[in-house]
Give the backbone structure.
Amino acid sequence: MACYINGAGMISPQRTYDNEAFLTDIASYDRNVLTCLLPNFKDYIHPFQLRRLSRMLCMGLAAATICLREAGIETPDAVIAATGYGFQEDMAKFLTEMLEQDEQQLTPSYFMQSTYNALAGLIALSVKCLGYNTTYAGKGFAFETALQDAMMLLREQEAQHILAGSFDEASPVQFREYARLGYFKKETISNLQLFDCQTPGTIQGEGVAFFTLSAVSAPHTWCRLKGIRTIHKPVDYRELSEALTTFLARHGLTPGAIDVVVNGASGDVIRDRWNTALLQDAFPNAAEVRFKHLCGEYATATSFALWLGAMILMRQAIPDAVQARPVHPCRKVKTVLICNHFLGKHYAFLLLDREANGFSCP
Amino acid sequence: MSRRVFITGYGVITAIGNNAEENCTSLIHRRCGFGKLDFLETVHRDRLFACEVKLSDDALCRLAGVSIGAGYTRTTLLGLVAAKEAIAAAGLSDADVQHAGLISATTAGGIRELERHFYDLQDPGKKGAFVAYLDTADPGEHTERLAEYFHIKKCLGTVSNACSSAANAIILGERLVAHGEIDCVICGGAEALSKVTINGFNALMILDREHCKPFDENRNGLNLGEGAAYIVLESEGSFQRSGRRAIAELAGYANVNEAFHQTASSPQGTGALEAMKRTLAKAGMDTADIDYINAHGTATENNDLSEGLAIQRLFGDRTPPFSSTKPYTGHTTSAAGSVEAAFCLMAFQQGCLFPNINFQQPMKELDIQPLTEVTHPVRLRNILSNSFGFGGSAASLLFAKC
């Protein structure tokens, strides 16, 4: 059973929400934290709802709406959401209020809005989706689990159109903990220099993305999601590289068949090492693109990679802002491999492709 | 192409016991875990009772066999204790475990440790033993620590779907095995009590200060609990290869959303009804095939009305015995689905059904009443277990005795 991406909605630190311009006007950030550029929520959310929802819930509902409109679907058959850390801002508000007020006179709204499945529930309520609904939460693999679940649902013919996505926010609570753990850079840099500084640590980012995954293709199909493989804390580099080779072989591909590799390097000279080694010279015909200077690092950043890879396949164009190693400009892009890592612990491989009919060189 | 999926072992720790045997004894002897909080430091400890596992974090470390001070959150420790028991009960070898998947559910995760050390963790200059809890508050943390302990690498997932989370973890595990993605998967949930959880539910005004009374006319809210439970799901080939036996088959399941309200269930119980109906359909069974229902039965005004009406609508005057075991364990929220799955498996093994403690007065909206005594039914083949949660989430599981 094929799994087609028929629409996407991406709210990120770049202007990605309208799916019009493709990373032409790049936003720069100079404090190691990248936060989302927001659409006009009024275009997507009823004013009555807008007043009551947190920023994250607004972003989530807007991204879901953009995605469904793009795919031409009113009500999906299932909603699957994923997050690494959930609604940290609201959770921190409830927690600090609780600590400061000595557990007295608390209002439940921050508690309710910070329950991990609040977004998937809200979307179901908004689009009247009575079907399958779940939320995965957990550091580096939540979005990958959501995609695997969606692909199984399509195979089970339990659903024709699935709305699956992710959300994570750049919260100060997380920033301070990550900084102490050495996950973020000590020096302050511009996001656009992320790959030049060659120092340990990365920069904080965030993003909300939704995709319509469907069993059937449409004229507006972006691409096909062929497969996913994750590996948690590989013992050594060999275990990781073998996992990638097996993954490609399982899909009947050799490294030469890959046209674009989306490299999830985070600009962290230590934790990028294996990812860099994995891609070095291994894909002779592939262009290499990088993206974490545009969105920062976050637990569900694979969703930005998926949006980028799918967009490259649909547009048959690679924006300058993501080019790390260009190839012959006239080569058609048929197969995209995403290799993401999160903090050097969670590795994920995703394969996307697009059937080669009707493409022409620009 | 879909493979059948069986349960070969389970493990459970709750306020009524540190392992399956202790839980079972308590269930049979009507011993409940409801009482004063001894280990959670909250201003409400003398007024808002709950069902606490009566072991300190250090004692839990010893029980789980891990070092004290290594940053294991209470949720992780509860999870480790139950998962180790499940693995041993299923008779999995170390190699079996390494090739298995792990799908675990939680909502609280390491919130308990975050709230205890919040200001210290946020102060870069502060040093101390608390640093072991840096970045341990998120739900995925406990899954990763468990996976590291058992050397599981390939298939990890964390479900956080409010109070139906563990049921959804079991559903995902079932599907991974059914699809042939994996042969064996350990599924369940873990949840430690925290001040955030207690104060959140308290702010929602759904906590009963007295011992909860599911399906009773005078029910007045839920009691919170903590605990963990895991079940081992395997394909037929997987356990038969090594001559092991299954306890039950996971014959059906459903996950639906009723898209009614952010935190409340619809009064008619449309989500609950749909989840049970689809579960029966998935298993190819009829209502007459069900011999017992382990209800979600939180004892909130809202849940018991909607769930009771849904059961009544679906089963009518042929409603099988049903009970909520939450007066025993409290509502273990994201672990409840797997804790109650373990109780269903115990029911098969013991040939008995566990009562709905504290039931006195029937609800005026219902013609059906829960089971109030331990009973040994003549026939106990199929059990339905319900889990519902915030966000409109409704899940059911159907276990068929092997």
Summary: Chain A has two domains: 4-214, 226-353. Chain A touches chain B through 62 residues (CB under 8 Å).
